[in-house]
Design brief:
This protein is an alpha/beta fold. It contains 13 helices and twelve strands. The strands form three sheets. A six-stranded mixed sheet has the order 1-2-6-3-7-12. Strands 9-10-8-11 form a four-stranded antiparallel sheet. A two-stranded antiparallel ribbon has the order 4-5.
């Protein structure tokens, strides 16, 4: 598996388009882009409604229902609760028999904290979550891209099937990993996705695989002053574990990341805590390293329990692969991103962006960069994780990012949440919807491009590869966010 991950990691600039590619005709482009323009207002309204819902992973009942309603109105067939995930769904439209199956992925979960008004200064909202990663935009743009492709297929008698996968709990819940494990992409030819970002780009590269989970320590409560000898502190165990893990950092492979938060440290200082919990992530491009380092973290937990005379158990809540890039599909996506072009901001949006940039540390890219298309490359290792990666190991997959945030914004930030709740974010979502729809249509028109993508996919995975999910055989962790939800 490791050799497959390192295939083509050196950056490679986009080559000329293959000579056999069947370019979209001007009427194709006009139809698809016209449909997105027609629906742009409702796309934006949908995105901003989901921004206000701000629902955490596996709890996105309103967000999921809204996207489902839009797709039902557009004539898609619906399957809900797929892969044992109540807020997941599959919307499909088939035109005739035969033809490829092209899937578009849609996310819609928010992050704990990061609740922020849609203004360029820090103004927290009194709610549990916020769209600091822009998934309100992600789900809405993907939905309307699928709707545009469906209408184009009917108008031009294009054979095949367009699907929209509603995928919950990307933020730590590994929703797509359970879908991939359950075979829900096995009959898909190509999968498309996008993600909100600071720039417009079809560059591809490996993300970081990860395993996440919660360590729960169980001790004995007692009066912290009158009878401390009778107690065994679960919080002491958490702190001992964290200290040992921090000492590990010097001795783990380069580019490995370990993060944790203490999610339960007790209730009162004068009571020895009998229950405590710490939530861990381990990341690395190579999933075998992730497995090895997480095993070491588990040993630290066991040692902490032994040293504090407590007990510990571990619940794995997530596990995802590293994204498998596809250069053939990157060319298609990049070509269509250039067809649509960059983004233009109004003077009001420029003033918003300039005010946001005042909150940054260091120099930020110029606001004008949102009007540019960045070079498409097969690049080096990414610094984040995504459950799209699991999809990319079972079907050829390609994505893009668009400038939905103010250039220079940090991921998972209040600045992102602010931009995702106003016109700056919506403009990036419209660009994404247009690019996705053109890319899907070109692939429907060009079976040669699909064949080339599949051949590359087979080479990158390597002979004899068999997908085995890092989440194991557990059911989706539907309650992994409930402790931080609004009751």
């Amino acid at each position: 598996m490791h050799n497959a991950f390192t295939f083509g990691l050196a950056a490679t600039l986009v080559a000329a388009s293959p000579g056999w590619a069947r370019e979209l005709t001007p009427p194709d482009q006009t139809q698809l882009l016209g449909t997105i323009d027609r629906d742009s207002a409702v796309l934006g309204d949908t995105a901003l409604q989901i921004w206000k819902f701000a629902e955490l992973g596996y709890l996105e009942t309103q967000s999921s229902a809204l996207l489902q309603s839009r797709l039902k109105e557009a004539g898609f067939q619906m399957k809900t609760g797929i892969a044992g995930e109540p807020t997941a769904f599959l919307a499909s439209y088939r035109n005739g028999s035969g033809g490829p199956v092209i899937a578009v992925l849609a996310e819609f979960d928010a992050l704990p904290g990061l609740a922020q008004a849609a203004v360029p200064t820090r103004q927290p909202l009194n709610q549990a979550a916020g769209h600091g990663c822009g998934h309100n935009l992600f789900g809405s743009a993907s939905t309307y891209a699928a709707i545009a492709v469906k209408e184009w297929m009917i108008r031009n008698n294009i054979k095949g099937e367009i699907r929209l996968y509603g995928t919950p709990a990307e933020e730590g819940g590994s929703g797509k990993a359970y879908m991939a494990r359950d075979g829900l992409f096995n009959d898909v030819d190509i999968a498309l996705h996008w993600h909100p970002g600071n720039a417009n780009s079809a560059a591809q590269g490996p993300s970081m695989a990860n395993i996440s989970g919660k360590f729960r320590f169980h001790g004995k409560s007692s009066h912290a002053a009158a009878a401390p000898d009778k107690g065994r502190s679960a919080l002491d165990a958490v702190e001992a574990m964290d200290a040992m893990v921090n000492l590990m950092r010097e001795h783990i492979p380069d580019r490995t990341r370990i993060h944790y938060v203490i999610t339960n440290g007790g209730k009162a200082p004068n009571v020895v805590p009998d229950e405590a919990e710490v939530y861990y992530y381990v990341r690395q491009t190579d999933p075998q390293i992730v497995i090895s380092v997480m095993d070491w973290v588990k040993q630290a937990a066991a040692g902490a329990a032994m040293g504090t005379q407590t007990k510990v158990d571990f619940e794995q809540t997530g596990g995802v692969y590293s994204l498998l890039p596809n250069e053939a599909l990157m060319h298609v996506m990049d070509r269509n991103l250039h067809r649509v072009g960059g983004i233009s901001w109004t003077p009001e949006e420029q003033a918003f962006g300039a005010e946001i940039q005042k909150s940054f540390t260091g120099q930020a890219p110029p606001l004008s960069s949102v009007g540019e298309i960045q070079p498409a490359v097969i690049g080096s290792e990414g610094a984040a994780s995504t459950d799209v990666a699991d999809v990319s190991w079972v079907v050829p997959t390609v994505g893009l990012s668009t400038a939905t945030f103010v250039p220079g914004s940090a991921g998972h930030s209040w600045q992102n949440a602010a931009a995702a709740g106003m016109s700056i974010g919506v403009k990036g979502a419209i660009l994404a919807a247009k690019t996705l729809s053109l890319t899907a249509a070109e692939l429907f028109r060009s079976p040669e491009e699909i064949s080339a993508a599949k051949a590359e996919f087979a080479r990158r995975r390597g002979a004899g590869f068999q997908y085995k999910s890092l989440v194991g055989d557990r059911k989706p962790p539907l309650d992994y966010r409930k402790s931080t939800s609004v009751e």
